[in-house]
Amino acid sequence: MKKLLTFTLAISITAAGFAAGKDCVIKFKNNTGKRVNAIKADDKGNLMYKDGKFVSRVRAGDYIFAWIPKPSAITSADQLIQQGKLDKALSEFKSLYDKYRYLGWDIYCLNREAEVLKKKKKYKEAIAILEPLQNYDLKNTVKKRDDLMLSYKLLSSLYLDSGQDKKAMELLAKLSQAKNDDVAIYSFIGRGEIYEKEKKLKYATDMYLQAALLFPKSELRPMALCKVANLLKAQNDKRWTIWAQKLKSEYPKSKYVSELK
Predict the structure, then answer these.
(1) What pTM was computed for the model?
(2) I need a surface site. Which of 14, 29, 165, 170 has the fewest CB within 10 A?
């Protein structure tokens, strides 16, 4: 490995401020990866990492990405959202973004900020946070691709909520190739909702059918089945009963059973 402008210090492993975890990873500019005991980053992206009994430094321009397991502080902030403490959660994620942006948790924190703003119906502010991620240069495709796809999903929902259907349609099309089934299925459901709003019922039905058929394990499948049944019924297509029965038999406790028309 070339020098990478690093230097190693034989200092105590108890140094404060490190984000620890057995799966901390740094990928260097020469395309080699290194698993280390712990990493911390300053506000410019310079790293310090622990490897055994030693602490080393890496300047911001000398690595491709760094990643640490989910910090407990982020888990605690997640719980604030669950508890409905939205203002505190928003403040926490702003701070956590600054702390962990160079350690693999930047997109996650931005997503959570936007999610809180959406709950507060501050769509414009949430969109402003997520739109720049459409040009995000994804280096860590293994750990962060799902976060990026979730940002697209959230952004498309914000476009829909704010009446920006054209932008939503363009973004939803990108989501169809997502590896996460719950993200990919939303691509079809979202486009179906836009077509339904435009009274293009056959196109909408096709989207809902694809959602129901292509993603049998998704938690959003009951919604897709309900939409297929209701839309076919609206078109006087007797096949609606097949899809309604499928929803009732496969998901008898789903809230969407009561939404059948």
Answers:
(1) 0.84
(2) 14
